[in-house]
Amino acid sequence: MEAKFLEGKSCLVTGGSRALGASMVRSLVSSGAEVAFSYREDAEMANLLYEELKHSGVRIEVIQADVTDQVAITRLISGVEQAFGKIDILINNVGPYSDMPFLELSHADFDHVMSSNVRSTYLSMKAVGSHMKAQGSGHIINVSATDAFHRSSSVYGLAKSGVIHLTQALALELAPEVRVNSIAPDLIDDNEGMTSELAIRAIESTPIGRLVKRDEIAEVVSILCSPIFDIVTGQTIVLDGGRSIPRIN
Predict the structure, then answer these.
(1) Do residues 74 and 66 make contact, with C-beta atoms less than 8 angstroms apart?
(2) Is-above-0.85 flag for pTM?
(3) What is the rounded CA–CA span in Å between residue 186 and residue 73?
(4) Residue 141 gets which letter from DSSP?
(5) Cα(244)–Cα(249) distance, integer angstroms
(6) CB half-sphere exposure, 167, CA atoms < 13 A
(7) Residue partners of 103: CB distance under 8 A and separation at least 6
(8) What is the pLDDT of residues 52-91, one digit of tens each?
(9) Can you name the residues that pair with 237 across neighbouring β-strands?
(10) C-alpha span between 183 and 186 (Å, rounded)
């Protein structure tokens, strides 16, 4: 595939200043897209990524926003449209994790995980989707997780199931102009919060014999945004090395 296959496209990545979000920003930029990314609190991390990419040959914008807040979402979308003139691609990446058992989970933590994963995805898709419909094209990718498919991750799995539901529902509502898909990574290699014991168990149960890497996920996202996948909408791409394949034993 041509290296700059997203040249001329304008992208917004929410929560794009660090970890997986930053990897997706880098991949989109290397594919030729101009990219805006949001951050909530860590301006230093956001500025470091901007400094890294500012001489890449495409425009980079950094905007502070709490994407669970409707007013902030409106301001964010307006800022990106003013900078780029349009939004061709939206990546909903914000989604904090919690595996606290439901009976021990505080109401505040429940609300935080649901709001950051589901409400933010809904608000941004609603704001951007109407603009994409009007311009006649667009692609939205939501970041879910394989936790959506099992029942051992408490509210996080519930929230990621909601992200997939929104993906499918909006794929129908925004068709045919706009494609809406999601990705569902499993445990990510070099995840800061993962113990070595958990990593070993996960690798042992993964047919490919290793965990997915952030850069691999980012590359899938960029390629999914290309014209090659114009026929694909309402789908969730699982990135887990086969770990979620049902087995008898």
Answers:
(1) no
(2) yes
(3) 28
(4) E
(5) 13
(6) 29
(7) none
(8) 999 999 999 999 999 999 999 999 999 999 999 999 999 9
(9) 183
(10) 10
